[in-house]
């Protein structure tokens, strides 16, 4: 027998800019196919995740099949045609969310197309389950918790989508984890050779491979870390700029000031003054 579980937010906050989850649920389709036909789509975004089974989907164009680990994202107003196929213990999850902030969130995660595929995301069913429970019981703060869970879910799906294009040996970024961890503990003058050695690479192979995988050179990545540490120290402490410079590995406070201004457009003292 087909089973259906759904939960909804009963009120509409009527705030165009706010992100909120308006409904979520799952289908356990075992007896007969279940179809959704919405020529005018829905007012918000509609997310479908296939934990197990196969769904035939379309936005009015040629249909295709979404299988285990696949997820589908419809934009507001986009036609929705979905056939959830019946199979042994086929499970599908769905979720509606709205708000102008949703578009910015999706764009930041690269989720702007009609459909995406991902390797199975182990956390996804649990996150859907938590959202459904929050919408069922409407406990204090449930709306904020649902938004937090939605952001986590979309982030995980986006990561898996990106990692699918990497070699089967794993995520290329993992190769550089020892170097990245060392960068957070190093100062501005730590040589690139030291980070390369942690990854068992020559300096030049490390620079090329790191830049290709991370989208930024090791030097610029290290500079960004140092810059963020400098901003935190200027904002959270009363330490003199000269002491902060030394702590970050700068032997010359003027060199540190030039470095900071180059990346932020203001001097360290001006940055601190603006925050206070």
Descriptive notes:
- The chain is of the alpha+beta class.
- The protein folds into 2 domains: 3-163, Regulatory protein AraC (Jelly Rolls); 172-275, Homeodomain-like (Arc Repressor Mutant, subunit A, Orthogonal Bundle).
- Helix content is 43%, strand content 22%.
- It is built from 10 helices and 10 strands.
- A 6-stranded antiparallel sheet has the order 1-2-9-4-7-10.
- Helix 5 (192-198) packs across helix 6 (203-214).
- It is elongated, with a radius of gyration of 24 Å.
- The termini are far apart.
Order of neighbouring strands in the sheet with most strands: 1-2-9-4-7-10
Query: What is the average per-residue confidence, as pLDDT, rounded to a whole number?
Result: 85
Rough outline: elongated
**What is the H/E order?**
EEEEEEEEEHEHHHHHHHHH
Q: How far apart are the termini? A: 63 Å
CATH architecture of the largest domain: Sandwich
Helix-strand category: alpha+beta
Number of strands: 10
Question: Helix coverage percent of residues?
Answer: 40-55%
Fill in the CATH topology of the largest domain. Answer: Jelly Rolls
How many individual helices?
10
Q: Identify low-pLDDT runs.
A: 163-170
Domain count: 2
CATH-wise, what's the superfamily of the largest domain? Regulatory protein AraC
Radius of gyration, in Å, reads 24 Å
User: Per DSSP, what share of the residues sits in E-state strands of 2 or more residues?
Assistant: 15-25%
CATH secondary-structure class of the largest domain:
Mainly Beta
Instruction: Please identify the oligomeric state.
Output: single chain
């Amino acid at each position: 027998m087909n089973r259906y579980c759904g939960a909804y937010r009963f009120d509409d906050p009527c705030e165009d800019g706010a992100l909120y989850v308006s409904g979520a649920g799952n289908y356990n389709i075992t007896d007969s196919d279940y179809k959704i036909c919405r020529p005018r789509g829905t007012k918000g975004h509609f997310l479908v995740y296939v934990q197990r089974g196969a769904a035939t989907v379309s936005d009015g164009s040629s249909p295709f099949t979404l299988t285990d680990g696949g997820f589908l994202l419809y934009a507001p107003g986009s036609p929705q045609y979905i056939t959830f196929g019946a199979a042994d213990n086929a499970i599908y999850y769905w979720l509606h969310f709205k708000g102008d902030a949703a578009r910015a969130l999706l764009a930041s995660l690269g989720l702007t197309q009609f459909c995406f595929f991902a390797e199975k995301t182990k956390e996804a069913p649990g996150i859907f389950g938590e959202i459904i429970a929050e919408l069922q019981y409407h406990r204090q703060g449930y709306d904020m918790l649902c938004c937090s869970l939605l952001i986590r879910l979309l982030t995980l799906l986006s990561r898996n989508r990106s990692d699918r294009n990497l070699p089967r040996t794993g995520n290329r970024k993992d190769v550089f984890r020892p170097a990245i961890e060392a960068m957070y503990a190093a100062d501005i003058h730590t040589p690139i050779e030291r980070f390369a050695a942690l990854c068992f690479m020559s300096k030049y192979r490390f620079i090329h491979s790191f830049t290709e995988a991370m989208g930024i050179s090791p030097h610029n990545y290290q500079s960004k870390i140092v810059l963020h540490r400098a901003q935190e120290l200027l904002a959270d402490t009363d330490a003199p700029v000269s002491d902060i410079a030394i702590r970050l590995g700068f032997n010359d406070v003027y060199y540190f000031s030039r470095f900071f201004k180059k990346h932020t457009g203001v001097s360290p003292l001006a940055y601190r003054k603006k925050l206070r």
